[in-house]
Amino acid sequence: MITSTEDGGIVEIYLDHPPVNALPAEGWARLAEMIADHGRRDATRVVIIAAKGRGFCAGVDIKELARHPDRIAAVNRGNYDTYAAIQDCPVPVIAAVHGFVLGGGVGIAGSSDIVIASSDAYFGLPEIDRGAMGAATHLMQLVSVQKARRMFYTGETVTAEEVFRFGSIEDVVPPEELLTRGRELAEIIASKSPRAMRLAKRSINGILPVDLQKSYRFEQGFTFELYTSPDSQEARAAFVEKRDASFENDA
C-alpha cells in the first residue's frame, strides 16, 4: 500500500494502492507514520512523495466509508496527521504528482514544500459530490482564493498547466520525466548543509501567512457535520451504486 526507498539521504515514498490510490483509514495512518519516521532520521536530507499506477491519489476510500461509516474519525485523523507530517517534516518534501490529484492528493501536494507535476496531472476536490468536504486549505496553496472557491463548490478540476500559471508548481514535465526531475531537484537539496536545510524548513514554516494545520482542522469540523446528514449518506450511496444522487431541499 505504501512503500519507501532511501539512497544517499533521498527518501522516496510511493502510494501503491490500486486501482486509484484512494487510501483507507489504515493507509492514511501508515503514510503519516512513514513520513514522520523518515523525517526523524538524521540521515534523511529530502523526501519525495510519488505514486504508482494511473494517478497520484484519489483521496479517501469512499467505499470503505460506505461499508464502515464509523471510520470517518479515523479517516479524518489520518488525513490531518499526513498533512501535518509533511509540513512538520524537518527536511523539504517534494510531491511528484501525475494523473489525478484529487481530495487527499491535493492535501498532500498543498502541504509539500515543492510540487512537480507531469503534463497529464489534474487537480480537484470532488468531495462536494461525495458527502464530504476538506482540503480547501491546501488547495489555496496551489490556486487563487477565487479559483479554489469555484473548485470547492463545483467539484471541477484544473490541469497542471493551469496550476503552474499560479506559480505554485515548480515544473510540468512529460510523464516519463517526472521522477527524473524530482530526483534532480532532490539531489540539489541533499547536497546542502543538513543543518542549514533543517533550519530553512523551520524558518519557512514559521512565516507562513496561514496556519495550515489549524485551518484544516476547522474545515474538518464541517465535514463531520455534513457526514452525519442524510445528504451525505445519499451522496456516498450514489457514488458506490454509480447513479445520480437525489437530495432533499432542507438546507
Question: What report would you give on this structure?
Answer:
- This protein has a 6-stranded mixed β-sheet, sandwiched between helices.
- The protein has helices at 25-40, 62-67, 72-88, 104-111, 136-139, 145-154, 160-165, 178-190, 194-206, 212-227, 230-241; strands at residues 2-7, 10-15, 46-51, 93-97, 100-102, 114-118, 122-124, 157-159, 171-173.
- The chain has a single domain, classed as 2-enoyl-CoA Hydratase, Chain A, domain 1.
- With 251 residues, it is α/β, with parallel strands linked by helices.
- A hairpin with a 2-residue loop joins strand 1 and strand 2.
- 48% of the residues lie in helices and 16% in strands.
- The protein contains 11 helices and 9 strands.
- Helix 1 (25-40) runs parallel beside helix 3 (72-88), helix 3 packs parallel to helix 4 (104-111) and helix 3 (72-88) runs antiparallel to helix 10.
- The chain is globular and about 60 Å long.
What layout of secondary structure does this protein have?
Layout: E1 2-7, E2 10-15, H1 25-40, E3 46-51, H2 62-67, H3 72-88, E4 93-97, E5 100-102, H4 104-111, E6 114-118, E7 122-124, H5 136-139, H6 145-154, E8 157-159, H7 160-165, E9 171-173, H8 178-190, H9 194-206, H10 212-227, H11 230-241
Parallel strand pairs: 2-3, 3-4, 4-6, 5-7, 6-9
Antiparallel strand pairs: 1-2, 7-8
Helix pairs in contact: 1-3, 3-4, 3-10
